[in-house]
Amino acid sequence: MIPAHWRTHRRDEDGEVLGYLEPVGEGRYRPVTPFGRPVGGPGDEDSARAALDARGLAYLADPWLLSVPGREEPVRVRIVEVSPERVRVASTDHGYEGADLGQVFVLEVPEAERLRPARG
Question: Over the chain, what HEC string results?
Fold first, then answer.
């Protein structure tokens, strides 16, 4: 679950949650996705908010890699649902043995260890 002390950042136009500001020191915040993955380094509140505004919800369309216990190589996935409690991702990896294409994995939030961007 997203910690209560993280500040919610919403898009001005429609109030959609773009992410959170994770406090990391006196007047410093790390911008994180709605599922807790950092999108930039720590900075002041305005720069953290600007990083979330610049990123928007693009992470929903991006490919991701999921570390799966017992498997050396990560599985390619896409995000299908995000809430303050969990993120659901579905396999898009045709070479992933042991699961069907589209298998859903449910991860607790914040999630910054097992799920990482497939690019960059």
Answer: CCCCCCEEEECCCCCCEEEEEEEEECCEEEEECCCCCECCCCECHHHHHHHHHHHCCHHHCCCEEECCCCCCCCEEEEEEEECCCEEEEEECCCCCCCCCCCCEEEEECCCCCCEEECCC
